[in-house]
Specification:
The protein contains 17 helices and 19 strands. The protein is of the alpha/beta class. The chain has a domain of 107 residues: Urease, subunit C, domain 1, CATH 2.30.40.10.
């Protein structure tokens, strides 16, 4: 979708909340796809500028989702009492996409949900099994382009399955199941990296809105040679490097068993840490690991709802900020975050820090959360001109209806955005100076048609995936016993709440 408009636009009569705080009443002049000026009400505008009435509106920069998975939207809430390792084991059947159209569809569902809930950009770690394809990733980009959203698309890369990655898990499987598990083994890492290089070389989408990044899935799922190749590829093409790091205690324990050091320590040794690196989740990091990320100028994508939903605990976001880690906020996937509502993610981020101890001075503040969900996430995505309502920044602006119940009365705007808003106040969303949502309606996608296509695809994929679903049903009880037992290993930090280990 093209961005911007030739005619200048001036938003008049609104209240403005920025990542830097509540700015109060202000007019906003938009030229092309960017903000040209933010001034006092009634400020001068170019002759012929279109006036847009923003009275009774609270305007804020578009929220930015630092970590999600577009492949999860066709399988929202697929499991109930699932651990992360069960979710990983379910992958072959819940992401059993058969066509590029399935991939376009699942990405479009997520993009539509995000923009309707005030999110204008995201970091999408999309998975294709057994590896990324030109047609598949192009379909994902086309979905974001059709909706009008910005996205960094990072195909997930691995050369080991969860059964190989978790020490002892494969050996715990009955011999009768092992041939089927062997059939799930992934291609040699060199083949996968060749595919990724091809994607980066041939990328034809507008990089101002749609970009690629490199996403080695999880350290334990990638041999060191693959991790080093990912590092080199990200350096060569100057793109982001994003991976799940110590999301669960199982990963932290298994990492120490395999590497003899922490996962972050191992990534540092391999040279992956740096300003373009984002550690997703980062739950089971101790202070030394957090300091390592900070020293290297790295980012962390904090996914509090997913972390709690999968029983992984609560990341120490306050410590990350204290030690110079750039903090972004994410929803994770529809399979484990269950929705892509960034207002909900902000609320969980604020609330989660409060269950970690009784001292309010140690809690993350609402302004810190709002900044993380805007400028912090923008930095993680590698965009330097989104996340603010300020001159020179892209005109990615959310209009909240001040007559909506969650904002009545408007008392502490930034705190209310983080703790009270749930997305129901969203009236309009502008991306690059063009409205994508207007009057609560998505302008770029026919939602009833999308719903029908999703229902048809889900029925088709369920039928085609019966065999892989049966395999998951067979291994699930074993994974459910084995991995929690590994997570009971005594550890020097505790990220659970209400549980000693």
């Amino acid at each position: 979708m093209p961005a911007g408009t030739d005619r200048p636009r001036v938003l008049r009569g609104g209240l403005v909340a920025d990542a830097t705080g509540f700015l109060g009443p202000a007019d906003i002049l938009i030229a092309g796809d960017a903000i040209a000026a933010v001034g006092t009400p009634g400020m001068a505008a170019p002759e012929g500028a279109e006036t847009i009435d923003a009275s009774r509106m609270l305007l804020h920069p578009g929220l930015i989702n630092a970590h999600t998975h577009g492949h999860g939207n066709l399988t929202k809430s697929a499991g109930d009492r699932w651990t992360l390792e069960l979710l990983l084991a379910s992958g072959p059947y819940i992401t059993n996409f058969r066509t590029a159209e399935h991939k376009r569809l699942t990405a479009m569902i997520g993009a539509a949900e995000m923009v309707l809930k005030g999110c204008t950009a995201c970091y999408d770690l999309f998975v294709e099994i057994p590896g990324p394809t030109q047609d598949g990733i192009a379909a994902v980009a086309e979905a974001y382009d059709a909706v009008g959203m910005r996205a960094v698309i990072a195909p997930m890369l691995a050369d080991m399955t969860v059964y190989e990655a978790v020490p002892g898990l494969y050996d715990a499987m009955p011999a009768a199941l092992r041939p089927a598990l062997d059939a799930l083994r992934l291609p040699d890492w060199a083949e996968t990296m060749a595919r990724m290089r091809g994607l980066l070389t041939d990328w034809s989408f507008d990089s101002d809105r749609l970009r690629l990044a490199v996403a080695p899935t999880i350290p334990l799922h990638c041999r060191d040679a693959m991790l080093e190749s990912c590092r080199d590829l990200a350096d060569e093409f100057d793109v982001g490097l994003h991976m799940h790091v110590a999301e669960s205690k199982v990963q932290a324990v298994a990492g120490k068993q395999r590497y003899g050091r922490s996962l972050v320590g191992h990534l540092e040794m391999l040279g992956l840490l740096g300003p373009r690196f984002t550690a997703a989740h980062a739950v089971w990091l101790d202070e030394d690991d957090i300091k390592r990320l900070g020293r290297h100028g790295a980012s962390a994508a904090h996914n509090p709802a997913s972390n709690m939903r999968l029983g992984n605990g609560v990341a120490d976001a306050t410590a990350m900020l204290a030690h110079g880690v750039n903090l972004g906020i994410g929803t994770d996937a529809g399979t484990c975050g269950d929705n892509l509502n960034m207002y909900g993610a902000m609320h969980f981020a604020a609330a989660a820090s409060r269950v970690q101890g009784p001292d309010p001075d140690a809690w993350i503040t609402s302004p810190q959360v709002f900044a993380a969900a805007t400028t912090g996430s923008a930095r993680a995505l590698g965009f330097d001109r989104i996340g603010r309502i300020a001159p020179g920044y892209k005109a990615d602006i959310v209009f909240l209806d001040l007559t909506a119940p969650t904002l009545i009365p408007l008392h502490q705007p930034v705190t209310q955005l983080v703790l009270a808003e749930d997305g129901t106040s969203v009236d309009s969303v502008m991306i690059g100076g063009r409205f994508v949502v207007r009057g609560g309606k998505l302008l770029t996608v026919d939602l009833p048609k999308l719903a029908r296509a999703a229902a048809e695809a889900r029925a088709e994929l369920d039928e085609a995936g019966r065999e892989k679903r049966a395999l998951f049903d067979a291994v699930a009880p074993i994974v459910s016993d084995f991995c929690p037992a590994l997570a009971r290993t005594p550890w020097h930090i505790n990220r659970y709440c209400g549980c000693s280990q």
